[in-house]
């Protein structure tokens, strides 16, 4: 069950600006 983790990683890697919006995560 690594679907959630994979989706989050892909989204963060695909959209670097999203990481800033999320915070220091």
Protein model, in words:
The structure is a single chain. The chain is mostly helical and about 25 residues long. About 75% of the residues lie in helices and about 0% in strands. Helix 1 (about 5-15) crosses helix 2. It starts with a helix and ends with a helix.
Give a concise summary.
The protein has one domain. The termini are far apart. The protein has helices at residues 3-14, 16-22.
Number of strands: 0
Order of helices and strands: HH
Major sheet: none
Oligomeric state of this protein: single chain
From the alpha-carbon coordinates, what is the Rg to the nearest angstrom?
9 Å
Q: How many domains, in number, for the residues?
A: 1
Percentage of β-strand residues: under 5%
State the share of residues found in helices, binned by percent.
Answer: over 70%
What is the typical, i.e. mean, pLDDT? 61
Q: Tell me the overall shape.
A: rod-shaped
Structural class based on helices, strands and sheet pairing: mainly alpha
**Ends apart, CA distance between termini:** 21 Å
User: What's the tally of helices?
Assistant: 2
Residue ranges: pLDDT <50 for 5 or more in a row?
none
Biased composition (Basic and acidic residues): 1-17
Region (Disordered): 1-25
Give keywords.
25 residues, mainly alpha, 2 helices
Write the layout of secondary structure elements.
Layout: H1 3-14, H2 16-22
Helix pairs in contact: 1-2
Region (Disordered): 1-25
Biased composition (Basic and acidic residues): 1-17
């Amino acid at each position: 069950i690594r679907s959630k983790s994979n989706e989050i990683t892909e989204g963060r890697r695909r959209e670097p600006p999203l990481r800033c919006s999320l915070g220091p995560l």
